[in-house]
Design brief:
By secondary structure, this protein is of the alpha+beta class. The chain has helices at 31-45, 88-102, 140-144, 176-189, 194-203, 252-264, 270-276, 358-366, 373-376; strands spanning 3-4, 7-8, 11-12, 20-22, 28-30, 49-56, 59-70, 75-76, 83-84, 226-227, 233-235, 249-250, 281-282, 306-307, 312-316, 319-328, 331-338, 343-349.
Length: 385
């Protein structure tokens, strides 16, 4: 397994034994310890590639990459390798939306159909909602908190039509369709280009130079291929359409910069940042996926599992936490932040097996024993699924 030393923001971490990373319980872990554990776990779980970033004191303290971006050609994964962000995109989009809310270009509690020139079902993409007046209740707050009532994606329905499965605002059910509708409202209703705004308001100001909502030719020199559970290559889709629910390509170093900016509250007033991380709906589903979940549980009541605006939330003995994941065939990503401790971690893997080591990684890296891994579906590699 390859472990890549690197230089980041002018500091070269070439002597890993000298670097100590602070953890939630006050203990620390050296770079060398991290690398031993990561290498062991990746080999045991057949994880092709993995990149890690750790934030201490709200600043990036550690970034490293392990394994391969292209196993067949023995090309190493690096901190500058472009990886598929998947639903990490939603968290970045949520930050952008809150900027629009701050500027009063968008109201969280105004029914979104009111931003449009004609009824929502008269638009081709939303014609399936004709006859169900509940669409008139849906707000931006519901769309960001995944309480709209939409399925995750319409094509998961037997008839592949969009529908509303429960009263909007009444419960949590993760929905990419909801995020897509909010993008549509912003672009069609208030006439703002989401792709341009993401670049101008988030990527450029935060120094995310190898991040984009669509594929860029400059990515060709260093990008990762996704791998399935058997470590068979799945390629890397070159997306040419901006999708707020999941078209972003990024790197571990770039997404770490985004997380750092969020923790520091850059380009967003504290009142709106606080609103983003305020519980909007408590979560009682047994697992996050598939949606909508019919099985409920009280297992996560102790940690007060809930959803904010674009981010999942829970509570721990170390204070509150917020998280966001990203999944697709061949890609597994996870980020979690403990703002009271000013500690965060980002995990990005180009392997479908990546999430099978997330539970142990979080415990090892920062002593996070609180992330609801069962609800997330992060079945450890040494346990039966």
């Amino acid at each position: 397994m390859l472990a890549i030393s690197f230089c980041f923001t002018g500091r070269c971490l070439a002597s890993p034994n000298q670097n100590k990373i602070k953890r939630l319980d006050g203990s620390s872990i050296s770079s060398a310890e991290i690398e031993r554990n990561v290498t062991r776990l990746m080999e045991a779980a057949h994880v092709t590639g993995l990149s890690i970033a750790i934030i201490n004191d709200s600043k990036i303290a550690y970034v490293n990459s392990f394994g391969f971006r292209n196993k067949e050609e023995r090309q190493a994964l690096t901190q500058n390798t472009v990886m598929y962000g998947a639903s990490f995109t939603k968290a970045v989009f949520a930050y952008l939306v809150m900027q629009l809310v701050e500027e009063e270009a968008l109201d969280l509690d105004k029914p979104v159909h009111q931003y449009l020139a004609k009824p929502l079902p008269e638009y081709e993409k939303y014609k399936d909602l004709a006859g169900d007046e509940r669409y008139k209740l849906i707000t931006a707050r519901m769309l960001l908190s995944h309480t709209s009532g939409f399925p995750n994606w319409r094509w998961f329905n037997p008839d592949e039509k969009l529908d509303i499965k429960f009263a909007p605002g009444s419960k949590y059910s993760y929905s990419g369709e909801g995020i897509s509708l909010l993008q549509f409202i912003i672009e069609e209703g208030i006439k703002k280009n989401v792709g341009e705004m993401m670049r101008e308001r988030i990527f450029n100001p935060f120094g995310m130079t190898r991040t984009s909502m669509i594929w860029k030719t400059s990515f060709e020199n260093d990008y990762a291929i996704g791998y399935d559970e058997n470590e068979k290559p799945l390629g890397h889709r070159r997306r040419d359409e901006v999708q707020a629910a999941g078209s972003m390509d990024t790197t571990i170093s770039d997404y770490a910069r985004f997380m750092q900016a969020v923790m520091q509250g850059k380009n967003l007033k504290s009142r709106f940042r606080d609103e983003m991380f305020k519980p909007q709906i408590q979560i009682f589903s047994k697992q996050q996926f598939p949606t909508p979940s019919v099985e409920t549980t009280d297992e996560n009541r102790k940690i007060e599992l809930s959803y904010g605006l674009g981010w999942g939330l829970f509570r721990t003995p170390h204070g509150k936490a917020y998280f966001k994941e990203g999944h697709d065939d061949g890609w597994e990503n996870h980020s979690v932040c403990f703002p009271d401790k000013r500690i965060a971690v980002v995990l990005m893997s180009n392997s479908s097996n990546g999430d099978r080591i997330f539970k142990e990684l979080l415990e090892t890296l920062i002593k996070d024993k609180y992330t609801p891994w069962k609800w997330e579906g992060y079945v450890p590699y040494n346990e039966k699924g």
